[in-house]
Design a protein that fits this description.
Length: 124
């Protein structure tokens, strides 16, 4: 059985997908763009975009009764690998103890021409 998870604090999906799907004890969070859910605006720098993408993940997990400590795997897509250090610094501030497994790719382009997109898998 699967359940759709959606947060009103996060901008609506820009395509035919759910913000997250819960199945058994896993939550699969779709790639979160750095769009502010209240203003629909995107910051112009990697630091603020990373903060927004991870904040959006946090809001989605809250809808499922979870928090960032429940994340076991993330994927980070960067427009420019030169932004890795700044993204990494912000990313580390969202986790208190053990970091989730992670992979990071540089990609040629992201939706809405953002600089970062992050997805995750969380466990209950």
């Amino acid at each position: 059985m699967k359940k759709v998870i959606e947060s009103k604090k996060v901008a609506a999906a820009i395509g035919p997908y759910s913000q997250a799907i819960e199945t058994d004890n896993l939550i699969f969070v779709s790639g979160c763009l750095p769009i502010n859910g209240e203003t629909n605006e995107v910051a112009d720098n990697i630091k603020d975009q990373t903060i927004q993408s991870l904040t959006n993940i946090k809001y989605i997990l809250q809808e499922a009764g979870l928090d960032m400590s429940n994340i076991v795997k993330t994927t980070v897509l960067l427009k420019d690998m030169n932004d890795f250090g700044i993204m990494n610094e912000v990313y580390s501030s969202f986790f208190e103890n053990d970091y989730p497994a992670r992979i990071c790719y540089e990609v040629s382009r992201l939706p809405k021409d953002v600089l970062v997109e992050i997805d995750c898998i969380a466990v209950k």
